[in-house]
Amino acid sequence: MKRDPIYGMMAEFDSAQALIDAAKHTHEAGYQKIDAYSPFPIEGLAEEIGFHHDEVPLVVLIGGIVGGLTGYLMQYWMSAVDYPINVGGKPYHSWPAFIIITFEMTILFAGISAVFGMLALNGLPMPYHPVFNVPRFALASRDRFFLIVFSSDKKYNPSGTRKFLEGLQPRSISEVPS
Amino acid sequence: MDEQYKTTDAGSAPVIEPGYTFGTVTEKISAIVLTRPASNGWFVGFGVAFLLTMMMLFAIGYLFLKGVGIWGVTIPIGWGFAIVNFVWWIGIGHAGTLISAILLLLRQSWRNSINRFAEAMTLFAVASAGIFPAIHVGRPWLAYWLFPIPNTMGVWPQFRSPLIWDVFAVSTYATISALFWFIGLIPDLATLRDRTDNKALKIVYGMLSLGWRGSARHWHRYETAYLLLAGLATPLVLSVHTVVSFDFAVGIVPGWHTTIFPPYFVAGAIYSGFAMVLMLAIPIRKIYGLEDFITERHLQNSAKVMLATGLIVAYGYGIEAFMGWYSGDRYDAFTLWNRLHGPYRVSYWALLACNIFIPQVLWIRKLRTSPPALFCISGVILVGMWLERFVIVVVSLQRDFLTSSWGMYYPTRWDWMTYIGTIGMFLAAMFLFLRILPAISIFEMRTLLPEAEVKE
Fold it and tell me: Which of B187, B195, B454 sits opposite A42 (nearest CB)?
């Protein structure tokens, strides 16, 4: 695969409001492949860059169902099938006594799915990423806000995109080498 | 997010003092880890805690050599300190999850400045708690029998027993608490990665942050996962102490066999947990100059939670006493009499003083806002909650149905060394945590600043 030497064009902003406005204009101007970076979660920003499908809840639901079934069936199989032991005349399949572990396993599997599902969907861990090539990007985890247009976008061209981003009045613009 | 949590409303302190920006919040919290040199006080504190940890390891080593006979446990009191301390530590952990999960769902944004170290407290408390059942089993090399792991006998755990429910509840709780804490740390680890000048630290924090870069897509999934995890942790934390109380309530011993146990155990857990949060927060904010982030408001709110949960606990004691009389069961009635007048009466009266009477001074606003007073009252509550578990475990087992099987329990020096040693281990872990990781969630503090507001 031929790699583009340029990953994208990045603009730096001073405030959350400036970033959200810039993201909105960029998306409305027809740029599809863009991303925004901020030092804390900003409500509505993901929607502005055209991100609408968050699969995390589905992953968690599946994890929870699998966990609950695992918990219950494990107890059933161990107590009633593999090695049934008569304790005080209680039925081998004592379902009310199995509820608590079923509940705990539901929570356990759902919680693990939430964390690892989120990381997997985000493509993390990924210690290296082209955006880190921009020295000023170190401020993205402090107090600066960044918007990037990827070079893979159909509308991307070095001079035109730079001109467009300049119109958004950013603090600085840099080309991101990949 | 509600405006009232950010600014001063009538008569209450703000969650964060005015005048901070994203940059200054970041610098102030990360400086504790990155630039501030460790003080002599830190070394002394950590040294003492470390020595106590060594004492615990010594006591446990000797226990493994000799067996549980070195402890004070005998029949009829076969549970003793190990279970008292287990329940006490697990209870303390509950406040961390309450702060990080339940207060998040209730949109109490004041939690943002105390959730990080409260979650750390939860983890270290659960670790301290976990030691006790594992070393109490008699043959600790077979402790894995607690889990449904295949063994040569082909037998499985007894799933009709509350003790195995407890294994699942506590291990799930430990796992979920660790995950919750870790994903909360990821964005802050990225901040530390970008702030430090030290090449080795950059690599370590960079690896731990998993390469977090703050993309809007990532934040969106991150917030969903965080919220769902909070939603899962909320019923979980309530279930954990409920299941712990089942260890007692499902038994037939007078003083254990009551239906009030689950709610009153959960309330007691949060009660002692907030006391520990305050005992940690008050010195930390003073020593590291974090009074602007952990304000009077946090102290007041924690005091109010303690007051409320303390009253629920008092109600629990009241119902226990009432049922002892009203049930007409002579053994239950005798348990109450034995608590009030028996050989361990001092522990019961001290528990009433520590958990019910003394904390009522929290109704006085002046004491609720005074750090030294709160520190002392929290200490009293922690002692009281330990005594509560002592009364439940020891005093109930001490005299049950048959006078011929009555007995006494005297903790030995090994009991005390193990118990005090776990406090040392807990504190040593806290000392290290303060120097290695940001003690306050930086990114969540940024969201509390007025400049974080956006309009669509």
Answer: B454
